[in-house]
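Quick note —
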Amino acid sequence: MDRARSKIAIVLFNLGGPDRPEAIKPFLFNLFCDPAIIRAPTPIRWLIAKLISTRRTSVATAIYREIGGASPLLELTRQQASALEVALAEEGEVRVFIAMRYWHPLSEETAARVKEFAPDEVILLPLYPQFSTTTTGSSLKEWTRAARRVGLDAPSKALCCYGADESFAGAMAALVRRSFDEALAASGRKPRLLFSAHGLPESIVKAGDPYQWQVERTVAEVVRHLGVDGLDVVICYQSRVTPQTWIGPDTEKEVERAGHERVPIVLVPVAFVSEHSETLVELDIEYRRVAERAGVPGFWRVPTLQSDPAFIAALAALVRRVRARGAALSSHGGARRCPKGFGDCPHVRAAGETA
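Predicted structure written out below.
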């Protein structure tokens, strides 16, 4: 096959979000009915999802009302898809598709469109930089089921994660540096960098999920790219939604601590590459209010990467590397993978090194 003329389907995975107020409740149900999120037998999980989605609909509706009643995630992902098609145009006939996990376009809808395209190869590209069983793992499992249901059998390769990839970290560091310099100029002192990621229950991490370890590797790589001595850096976690013990420290408490210590902060969404309710509402509105009440002397929030040219270039480079290899790229986009104690890392699991 002439690789330059190959038909290449790239599938971007993301969470998805309600596109109208009426979609909020079914979106929440789909989210909490995912066995990767609620780890309980199907009948019990269905009941839990029904209960949580019913109880949280009014709260979630108020959250989405703050940003116009719907999530902007799909439109932003479409922009990323278009930019990536342009960046990869010389690879062949490239078409980028979108598969959302909990709202349309869902995996089966997208798999059917990919089948109609009749690609020579399929590259599965998560828009979750760090691997977790609850995000990339869940999306890949659902894609496998969807592809089987529609009869899509084109050769496929998946990118596991890229949170410590050199180009990805460099793109994120460039955005962080802009806000850092602005905060430094305005306050006359180095701000504290709060790298905030979506949280997970501790039980999932203890069971072998590498997400927290990968978040830490991302932050270390971004800080290295910043090249600033004596940085005050904190990794924290947001968006707790169940009564279980979650990994910490909690982002809101770290914002409050910065207020007590009278330290300006730069808030960095480290696990999100697009704006959505957890950045536009939770970070921009809710935590800003917390900061004001706590007396934080300065509050800056770094934007997500979205369609930043350096980010799109990093994704394009990762796609090329996936295509060039005989198998999916290992964790963080290179030969490295998670330590063997993280048995839920697909590469550790494939090597049988879970102990």
